[in-house]
Amino acid sequence: MAEKPEPVRVLYCQMCGLPAEYCEFGPDFEKCKPWLIQNAPDLYPDLLKEANDKQAEKVANQLQAVGISSSGDGGGVREGQADSSGSNAASKPEEVKRLPGGKIKKKDKQEVVIEKIVRNKRKSITVVKGLDLFGVKLSDASKKLGKKFATGASIVKGPTEKEQIDVQGDISYDIVEFITETWREVPESAIFFIEDGRKVPAA
After folding, report:
1. Number of Cβ within a 10 Å radius of residue 144
2. Where are the residues of the annotated region Disordered (predicted)?
């Protein structure tokens, strides 16, 4: 006699009410994240990694703050310390390392970074970071990207609390052309892709 199939159990998010795997398409994914990390870590492994990276960054910043305050009167000027002793130069790359996905360097560097993220081996999201550094209004850019590629596009806070545009689907194939044609102030030489954890020029 054939076994009776088990009923499918759906895990619903306590924040937005959607099934957990659809939270990212809901009205406020940011509010769902803490609940998902606790209750559905296997659905969103990226969130778990992001939370761990944030924790590591917090600890690193605390240690760095202690190191600066204990260095005496000259502790306020980090650049001066780097000139006088090469040992402190190793702490500078930390700014770059602390970004898990985008790896955007210093905040004053003007560049647009595009990264394709695949979730659950089937959902793709194209992340666009840095347009605001060229004076582009992100809300305007989000609407134009969504309209051009007939998909959902939203502004979210990235791992470093900087705003980025998340576009549903893989649009990396002709997004560079669209960006340079729509916003003339963004040169193609300033656009980069993240491939296998490395930053590759789009040009």
Report:
1. 17
2. 65-102
